[in-house]
Specification:
Elements (H helix, E strand, L loop, with lengths): L2 H6 L16 H8 L20 E3 L16 H4 L2 E4 L2 E4 L4 E2 L4 E7 L3 E9 L21 E7 L6 E7 L5 E7 L5 E2 L7 E7 L2 E9 L12 E12 L3 E5 L15 E5 L9 E14 L9 E17 L2 E7 L28 H4 L22 E9 L2 E10 L2 E5 L6 E5 L3 E11 L4 E11 L4 E14 L2 E13 L2 H7 L18 E13 L3 E10 L15 E13 L7 E12 L5 E14 L3 E13 L16 E16 L2 E14 L4 E15 L4 E14 L2 E16 L4 E14 L13 E14 L5 E13 L6 E12 L4
Parallel strand pairs: 1-15
Antiparallel strand pairs: 2-5, 3-4, 3-14, 5-6, 6-12, 7-8, 7-13, 8-9, 9-10, 11-12, 13-14, 13-15, 16-17, 16-41, 17-18, 18-19, 19-20, 20-23, 21-22, 23-24, 24-25, 25-26, 26-27, 27-28, 28-29, 29-30, 30-31, 31-32, 32-33, 33-34, 34-35, 35-36, 36-37, 37-38, 38-39, 39-40, 40-41
């Protein structure tokens, strides 16, 4: 297969990536995760069976959110000290004083925090976009209104009033920080620390309204990032119990709790003025103007049943995707969902297999979603149309994206029954359908908690698929398939299955997991993200944790992993053994190294033959992955990831030497101005000469006038250079590519739904036929939406 065709199969929408890790990895762990931390040293406080309950006063008056916590209303509220460091230390006394005050008025839950600091000049807090301040000093609450240890809302605020929210899914272990609720907060820095006030409307929560006196699980948290990041809480944590949500303390009361006016209508207006031209034909600019009116409905039918509906939805985003590595990759990789309609209660559709990845739905005219809970029952369903029908064409060595030029229908239905706190059963059905194409999946899953430290997950799925002649003609012209997974596929319906079994152990000093999964040759999950087929994986890993409260380091991990993959005929795809070490040190630093030995096959010599043995080369690889990050100053973060060692030149079926480097710097130049720079470099060489080089420079400058107004400039430069003298399969003028994307956006957000965006974006290209960067696309866009409650 030629290089030209292989690169053609990788659209940029699903191009693979080497990204530096999200900044402040340690902060994400201490705030959200329940792993890799020691057990309690205070025995009398660590009995998770004896939860402390707090009676929450009902006061029929709302506070003024102005940072003045001396208001007499707060003096009548429940006072809860936040004084236990439960990460990374062993439930030790907090070095700083934090006091929380809570009450409710039947429609809102009100919280106030007095976060004292002996060195207020070291407070880490900047004015920035929503959900971008999880690495700052923050205070907030994790709230489980059903008190069933399945889902928990997160509401946090930094010292400048920047809101950060999300949802923790205890069933899957996922953290969804893209969910945005409509709630209010105010914060201000004082001489002895900072103050925060919050108002969380009940309309944003799911809870059981049928119970008079309600019991909600909760945890109050303060993140204190200094030399070491401390997680300060109102409760101790038993780390031998891998369910942190199960150990939450309880709030009792809420007799008057009601939804209030829980209908949210959000009309939107989107205007776009796009110009494009064919720079190879010296074409004049072709202009297209587009004005779209849309309407979103969010209706809380009851406190535990939510309806979302949309007509001509605006699924636009103004956050440009990060630059992506596209060269020498063999699999379509993952992009996160960012669109509010799909994010609301998205956790209800989660299963061990990713069978619902809504970013597959590109251009709908309408959509509707119903999610809810009733006692031990949870249910969810959504339907939508799509003008663009794209889906992954999977394989065991190579996957790409197929497109059908037809409108399609997409839908999913999910049900889960929680037998008790330890055992759950679920079912999920998905469908994508057009005139000549169909895919449906039926799946069953279960989670069983054998003990506080041991959990088993299982899932079984079956699929039914019919491909149109259009797909087969594109990828198997004249019976010669470019994808082995399509070799014996016709335009008749075909079926297959996939299943998974996973065991997970988490205790004080040990973590062990083992998983086996089988994905059949003809299994397809086109509404989800499943890039593999004819793929059987067994993977096991073990980690040993160490902790220190007095040394220069706070925690360390030694680990080992073994992973082996075969096709259904038992032919080896890859086998890898790895050892790793991680240590957390001063300046909020983290250093991680993984050394891997891997036996891995390349791409098939003949992609029209499904066999692997005798149809590929087997490579014996040794490589190291290194990652480090630190924050030497409150306003300066630096991180870097590196892979170095052996690699495979997939284009030319040979082994080489690879370097992939991705440094990142985030500098808060002032309270309002932030610069975020990421550079990605990839190089593969064979016989002492390079095969390809790719460079990506990603610069994002953001000036936040206040928590509602910001201006962002984004520049992404991507260059690819292929060596004509060391690429036997290269021909034509594809040896050089340069792209420069620019975006300037002003945004005003009164809340996540009441927004105004005004921006300009363009793209310029240079390659073997174009001698200088030449613009081929430019766009002016505006979005206006308003949330009517």
């Amino acid at each position: 297969m030629t290089l030209l065709f292989r690169r053609h199969l990788m659209p940029k929408l699903l191009a693979s990536s080497l990204l530096s890790r999200a900044h402040s990895t340690a902060t994400a762990l201490v705030l959200c995760a329940s792993t890799l931390v020691p057990t309690s040293a205070i025995a009398e406080q660590s009995d998770s069976k004896q939860k402390q309950q707090f009676s929450i006063p009902y006061i029929q008056q709302a506070p003024v959110l102005d940072g003045d916590v001396s208001d007499k209303l707060w003096q009548q509220a429940a006072h809860i000290p936040v004084n236990i460091v439960n990460y990374p230390y062993d439930n030790t006394p907090s070095p700083v004083q934090t006091d929380a005050y809570i009450y409710e008025d039947g429609e809102n839950l009100y919280l106030a925090f007095i976060a004292k600091d002996p060195e207020p000049e070291k407070i880490q807090g900047f004015i920035k976009a929503r959900d971008a301040a999880f690495a700052d000093d923050i205070v907030g609450i994790k709230l489980d209104p059903f008190n069933d240890h399945r889902l928990a809302y997160k509401f946090f605020v930094n010292p400048n009033g920047v809101q950060n929210d999300g949802i923790s899914n205890e069933m899957t272990g996922d953290e969804n920080n893209l969910w945005d609720g409509l709630w209010d907060a105010y914060a201000k820095v004082s001489e002895d620390g900072y103050r925060v006030e919050m108002a969380i409307p009940y309309r944003e929560l799911n809870f059981d309204e049928s119970v008079d006196i309600k019991t909600w699980g909760f945890e109050l948290i303060r993140i204190y990032p200094r030399d070491t990041i401390l997680r300060i809480s109102n409760m101790p944590i038993d780390k031998n119990n891998n369910c942190w949500a199960c150990q939450m303390q309880e709030m009792v009361g809420f007799e008057q709790a009601k939804l209030g006016d829980n209908v949210l209508l959000t009309p939107s207006l989107v205007y776009g003025h796009e110009s494009t031209r064919d720079i190879y034909q010296e074409q004049d600019w072709q202009t297209n103007k587009d004005v779209d009116l849309g309407l979103n409905l969010r209706w809380g039918i009851t406190p535990d049943i939510l309806l979302n509906a949309t007509i001509n939805p605006d699924f636009s985003t103004v956050e440009a995707d990060a630059g992506q590595l596209t060269v020498n990759k063999t699999s379509a990789l993952f992009f996160s969902e960012k669109r509010p309609f799909f994010l609301d209660n998205a956790e209800y559709f989660a299963t061990p297999f990713d069978l619902v990845h809504t970013r597959n739905i590109v251009d709908p005219d309408w959509g509707a979603k119903l999610t809810g809970r009733n006692g031990q029952h949870a249910f969810a369903a959504f339907v939508s149309n799509d003008h663009s029908t794209s889906f992954i064409l999977p394989g065991n060595l190579f996957s790409t994206v197929g497109n059908v030029n037809e409108q399609s229908f997409a839908g999913a239905v999910r049900y889960r029954y929680d037998v008790n706190d330890d055992l759950s059963f679920g079912a999920l059905s998905t469908v994508r359908d057009s005139d000549s194409y169909h895919n449906s999946v039926m799946s069953f899953d279960s989670k069983y908690k054998l003990s506080p430290s041991n959990t088993i997950k299982a899932q079984f799925s079956g699929s039914q698929t019919k491909y149109p002649e259009e797909i087969l003609a594109d990828y198997c012209p004249n019976g010669q398939c470019y994808l082995a997974s399509l070799v014996d596929v016709t335009n008749e319906t075909f079926t297959d299955k996939a299943y998974l079994l996973e065991f997970d152990h988490q205790s004080e000093f040990w973590r062990f997991s083992s998983v086996y999964q089988h994905i059949g040759q003809k299994f397809r999950a086109d509404l989800g993200f499943q890039p593999y087929s004819d793929f059987n994986r067994f993977s096991t890993k073990v980690n040993r944790m160490f902790f220190s409260e007095n040394a220069w380091w706070s925690q360390a991990i030694l680990g080992a992993k073994y992973d082996i993959n075969h096709n259904d005929n038992g032919e080896l795809i890859s086998k890898a053994s790895a050892v790793s070490g991680t240590i957390w040190g001063p300046w909020q630093s983290l250093f991680d190294i993984v050394i891997t030995q891997e036996d891995k096959v390349g791409l098939r010599f003949d992609s029209n033959v499904q066999a692997i043995d005798g149809n590929t080369n087997l490579y014996h690889l040794y490589y190291a992955d290194v990652y480090g990050e630190l924050q030497p100053l409150p306003n300066l973060y630096a991180g870097v990831s590196l892979r170095i060692g052996d690699g495979v030149d997939n284009f030319n079926d040979r082994q080489g030497d690879i370097v992939e480097l991705a440094p990142n710097i985030r500098w808060n130049i002032s309270t309002h101005l932030e610069a975020n720079v990421t550079y990605v470099y990839a190089d593969l060489s064979v016989d002492g000469d390079y095969v390809y080089k790719q460079n990506i420079a990603d610069l994002r400058m953001t000036y936040a006038f206040d928590v509602n107004n910001l201006l962002r400039l984004t520049l992404v430069y991507d260059s690819v250079q292929l060596n004509p003298d060391n690429n036997p399969n290269l021909y034509g003028s594809l040896d050089k590519e340069h792209n420069l994307s620019t975006e300037l956006v002003y945004s005003y957000k009164l809340n996540p739904q009441t927004v105004f965006f005004l921006g300009y974006a363009d793209n310029a290209r240079k390659d073997g036929e174009i001698s200088s960067l030449t613009r081929n696309q430019r766009n002016v866009f505006m979005k206006l939406s308003y949330a009517w409650l």
